[in-house]
């Protein structure tokens, strides 16, 4: 059983240390993509990175969400 504020997979399983790190990268990349002050080259490449990270978190069941608001 996990603590109430502990992140879990979409099915409720606790995260491994590697899964926590991957989910952290995904969340950080999502925040960066929305920064209006990024140069266009950085914004575009971060969107590409976000799409790749989405594949990982989706396959691992860490998160499931559409990324339309991020331009992906």
Plain-language structure description:
This protein is mainly α and 72 residues long. It has two helices and no strands. It has a domain at 17-64. Helices cover 53% and strands 0% of the residues. 10% of the residues are buried.
Number of helices: 2
Q: Roughly how many Å apart are the termini?
A: 34 Å
**What is the 3D form?**
elongated
User: Beta fraction of the residues?
Assistant: under 5%
Q: What is the succession of H and E elements?
A: HH
Give start-end ranges of low-pLDDT stretches: none
Mean pLDDT rating: 91
Radius of gyration based on Cα positions: 13 Å
In total, the number of strands is 0
Q: Give the helix proportion (percent range).
A: 40-55%
Q: How is the main sheet built?
A: none
Task: Provide a brief overview of the structure.
It contains 2 helices and no strands.
Topology:
Blueprint: H1 17-33, H2 40-60
Helix pairs in contact: 1-2
What attributes does this structure have?
72 residues; single chain; mainly alpha
């Amino acid at each position: 059983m996990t603590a109430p504020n502990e992140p879990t997979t979409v099915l409720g399983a606790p995260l491994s240390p590697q899964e926590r790190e991957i989910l952290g990268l995904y969340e950080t990349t999502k925040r960066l993509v929305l920064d209006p002050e990024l140069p266009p080259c950085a914004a575009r490449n971060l969107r590409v990175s976000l799409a790749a990270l989405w594949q990982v978190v989706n396959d691992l069941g860490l998160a499931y969400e559409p990324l339309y608001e991020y331009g992906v």
